Amino acid sequence: MQYEQVETIKVNNTVDNATSLYEQLVHDYPFLNKSLLKRYARDYANGAYKILAGVYDINDMGSNFGDEIYQNEIDYLLHDNPNMSVDDLIWRQTNVGVKLNDCQKAKLYHYLQ
């Protein structure tokens, strides 16, 4: 099976190959969209497995706030920074702010309250 190219990521001052992580995530979580797994491999490296712990189907990801921003990812980000704002989440952490509409942003804001 041919996998999409995923750029190399830098984690804790070491370079890790996101492509092999992506391939492993696709193998371990075939029921999740490849675009989501690609983003997790690129953005979270091995932290992707913390986000996906206990996930056996898409429903285990929690609420979908839009553009594949799931509750599990938000909870993972909030674990170390519980006071993170919606703007921090969508513009600095996940970079999906341009893809979310106002209703989706409001849903995420409500979840953080």
State the main characteristics.
single chain; 113 residues; 6 helices; globular; disordered N terminus; DAO_C_sf
* Total DSSP helices: 6
- Per DSSP E runs of 2 or more residues, the count of β-strands stands at 2
Identify the overall geometry.
globular
Uncertain stretches: 1-15
Element-level helix/strand string: EEHHHHHH
The proportion of residues forming helix, as a percent range, comes to: 40-55%
Total individual domains = 2
Strand order of the largest sheet: 1-2
Oligomer: single chain
**Mean residue pLDDT:** 82
Describe the protein in words.
- With 113 residues, the protein is mainly alpha-helical.
- It has 2 domains: 1-57, no CATH class; 62-113, no CATH class.
- 49% of the residues lie in helices and 5% in strands.
- It is built from 6 helices and 2 strands.
- Strands 1-2 form a two-stranded antiparallel ribbon.
- A hairpin with a 2-residue loop joins strand 1 and strand 2 (14-16).
- InterPro entries: DAO_C_sf.
What is shown here, in short?
The chain has 6 helices and 2 strands; from the N terminus they run E-E-H-H-H-H-H-H. By secondary structure, it is mostly helical.
SSE inventory with pairings:
Blueprint: E1 9-11, E2 14-16, H1 18-28, H2 34-44, H3 48-51, H4 71-80, H5 86-93, H6 102-112
